[in-house]
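Subject: sequence -> structure tokens, single chain

Hey, anyone have a minute? Need the predicted structure for the following. Not urgent.
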Amino acid sequence: MGIPKKEKWYRKLRHKYRLVIFHDETFEEKISFRLSRLNVFVALVSLSVVLIFITSYIIAFTSLREYIPGYTDIRLNQRIYQIESRADSLENVFHQKDRYIANIKRIVEGYDADQDSIDAYNSQVDMGVSAIDTIEFSRSQEDSLLRVEFESAKRFNLYDQGTIVPESRRRTMRVANFFIPLKGTITNPFDPINKHFGVDIVAQTNDAVKATLEGTVVFASWTPDKGYIIGVQHAGNFFSIYKHNAVLLKKEGDFVKVGETIAIVGDSGELSTGPHLHFELWFNGIPINPSDYLSF
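Reply:
Had a minute. Here:
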């Protein structure tokens, strides 16, 4: 009797096996599978390939890779830099706004102007250049006739007259042309050397004080020296101040149109010597002579 030859290993891969699942109590056959070693090997390899592909996709194309040690978003540093830059910009803007508001309050309350502003004005005067030379005006005969018609009629709202003033001209006149806040006689002219940064206009008691340009009221209060004060911020970095009023008709945050009544002439404040309006006009933080813009 001869010894059987040993079967080669790769042929054993094709041997069939049955995997049977029985009921534990009745021993009834529930499920059965016919398997071979080759089938099990192929199934395991296929499953491994699928798992490797899914894992690679998650790491390469989803944000879950950020939770794996050693993997970070390559754009993270860029976003952090942008956020820091915006935060610094906002901080600078808020700081400038705070300084601007503090400067406005200091001006309307009657304190001295910044020395930088006075030096800038004096240097321009010494060089023979006025602070208003940087502003260009273009007045035609039609504009002059329109102004005469408007002032003679004593209308309060220039921009509502759509049939008189074309829209294109109205946009340019918002900064180029100023409305007289009060008709009267100038008793104390503009004198920055002696720290008188406006003009004193004497008029009849209870006359209306009107906005010289459209803008937003940023200050409306009472001070012991200047009485009732109202300040309006305009486009083009213009700022106008009206002091010694009897009554303020607008409050902070109100938007006023050019020629709109904002106060009543009065004699309030300890520094007032009679019913009059102290009117100041500032441009880019520098006091300028209102008489260069308006004919009172």
